[in-house]
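Researcher: Can you fold this with zinc ion in place?
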Amino acid sequence: MGVSQMARRPPRDIDMLEPRLLSVNQVTTRERWSLEQAIDGYARLGIAGIGTWSESVRDLGLATAGRRIRDAGLAVTGHLVGGLLTDRDPAARRARIDDNRRVIEEAAELGARCVVTIAGGLPVGERDLVGARARALDGLAELLPVARAAGVTLGLEPLHPMICAARSVLPTLELANDWYEALATDGGDGLGIVVDVYAVWWDPNLASEIARASGRICAFHLSDWLAETTDLRLDRGMMGDGVIDIPGIRRMVEDAGYDGMREVEIFSARDWWRRDPEEVIATIKERYRTAV
Ligand code: ZN
């Protein structure tokens, strides 16, 4: 960024980050708080939104979960997990599509901003990455009309390439934008892109691909990349403890027109999942002011 551009941007007033835009994904406290406890706890501690997981919502009961979340005054910034559409086996593939239909229904009932939709990894024993990507895109094309009919947005979330085999053959925002454009031939209704700083921070094309996603971003996920990370999926850091320029990425996302909530989503088996959720939420609120 040139000096003249930097000069245009006033120093950030930390109070500009409004508490009403802070959401927490329930996975962040999942070892210590059930969904019910998370709903009550987040609302009590001043969090404005929640990201929900299908498994927990089904355990509690969809109608009950929806009612409790509404009564608590929480927005649902995302519902998981959509997608996982890379299976080659027809029966497995059909089961995944059916599960996605159910996830979409849940998202509609919960009033979720989007279904967080991940591609799925390479099926066990396969090396055909091109084929896996084609199947994921086909599955999304089949689900898009379902989402539209339900008034739900499928949020395509690229994940970090290190989990390409295990979770997501969609590893970059560039490919997410390509898929968005391939799917949205009759408009982007029912389709969005999720920007998760943990997944995309390393990307040399980040600025240009976030700009390209202008008007498409339906969710913004926060955590941090620990310099000495110890696990491929479950060692995310608290904002400010790692190496990601979170305020920089937040500004890119806002410049691309995103004015929605910021959802903290920390998978941390060795650290944050073990702590008292009250402490976790207090730390999130503090870091939201100082590191986002
Ligand atoms: Zn995420």
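Model: Folded with zinc ion in place. The two ends are 19 Å apart (CA to CA).
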